[in-house]
Amino acid sequence: MNVTQFQLDALREIGNIGSGNAATALSTLLQRRIEMSVPKVWAVPFEQVSAIVGQLDTPQVAIYVKVEGEAPGKAVFLFPVESAEIVVQALFGTNEPLDLYADEMAQSALKEVGNILVSSFLVALSQFSGIPLQPSVPALAVDMIGASLDAIFLEEGTLEDTVLFIDTQLSGIPEIEGQFIFLPDDGSLQKLLGAMGL
Amino acid sequence: MNGVISVGMADYKTARSPDILLTAGLGSCIGICIHDPFLKVGGMAHIMLPTAVGSIGGNPAKYADTALELLLREIVGMGANKARLRAKMAGGAQMFNFPGKPPVLKIGLRNAEAVELELKRNGIPLLVADVGGSFGRTIHFDVGTGELRIRTINHGEKVF
Hints:
The structure holds two protein chains of two kinds. By secondary structure, chain A is an alpha+beta fold. Helix content of chain A is 43%, strand content 28%.
């Protein structure tokens, strides 16, 4: 797939609109201010993903939602474990320490957060492109970031030499950090851009 | 000097004792470790997919079959005797489960099968296969002793 600079810009704009909606949803959910970075668009070999997410064996919470519909793809929310704890504590209205590795209630709450955030992202994307898109049931892993990402990127048993995705940093006040990744399947980007007349 | 040599995704490296090879954050990927216990040399490959056959191409170190071929060539090039080589592997997890939707491909297990097949084809005994599960692994391999150390976040540490 050859991607022009113009298409990358369009993808960044998609990221802006969608991630903005997602950040607003997170802010409403947690009742605190959430800031969003300007989305970055990456077209890199997957092997270089550590340049984007850092040390591959750092534990993080990965909430993975498949995007279903005419322009399928994948959406992933990454939270450092401490940030995910703060998110769950805010939702449960508690300061008790949590064990995210074992606590099924906490895990289920995080999946719901992922569901809400991805849905808001997709609502924006659908409105913008006119292509209906739905989120799958969310799945969750609290594990090494590299392990979670390789499983997501390689799930179909193929890997393009260059993967294309949008990456947005979210940060809340206080102490919440997160990262949102949207990965259109091969061909979906063309459909989205086509629907927008690009 | 005891150095730690890091092997990235879709990458392979060789080393001589006392150096240690390391690869971090294996999910459905597999770390293949091979050494010659007599000469105390060896190597590690971090493969992502089973076979280059029918694939789009690109970096051959991505695939079990082509990566192993490259790795073996380099280890033998260091003077190792192919008949003495031994292998260990770790990884091949299924990290995510979607309720009610069994995974179509189980790419981790397919990777493990592909590595096993290629080793058998090359007549190299596979001494340890710590594969599967739903958790990530970081591995250290001592090319001198053949010791494989597997670290996880929440499933303990193992040494083979």
